[in-house]
Design brief:
Largest sheet: none
Number of strands: 0
Oligomer: single chain
Shape: rod-shaped
Order of helices and strands: HHH
Length: 94
């Protein structure tokens, strides 16, 4: 992957890792510009660009879904730990 799609991929990864939602909005605008430019030139180039972007977004969705599951598991473990602490304290306060 090279050219504008590689740049977009790097920017998406950076924005997601840093949690910068504003950066994601700017990348989205750049994606629209890249798609518009590809479509206006050559149908083969447009197809290749769209396929590359589809791959980038599919990988991003996969990574974000895995991260969401990881965070969910951590939150569940924290909640279970908190309940255990509350139960212990309730038993030993009297």
């Amino acid at each position: 992957m090279s050219g504008p799609v590689a740049v977009i991929q790097a920017r998406l990864i950076h924005a997601v890792r840093s949690g910068e939602l504003e950066s994601l909005i700017r990348v989205d605008a750049d994606v629209r510009a890249v798609v518009a430019q590809a479509i206006s030139h050559d149908s083969d180039a447009a197809a290749a660009t769209l396929e590359a972007l589809r791959t980038v977004y599919a990988n991003l969705i996969h990574a974000l879904t895995a991260e969401r599951a990881r965070v969910g598991a951590q939150l569940s473990a924290l909640s279970n730990g908190r309940r255990a602490v509350d139960a212990y304290q309730a038993r030993h306060q009297g």
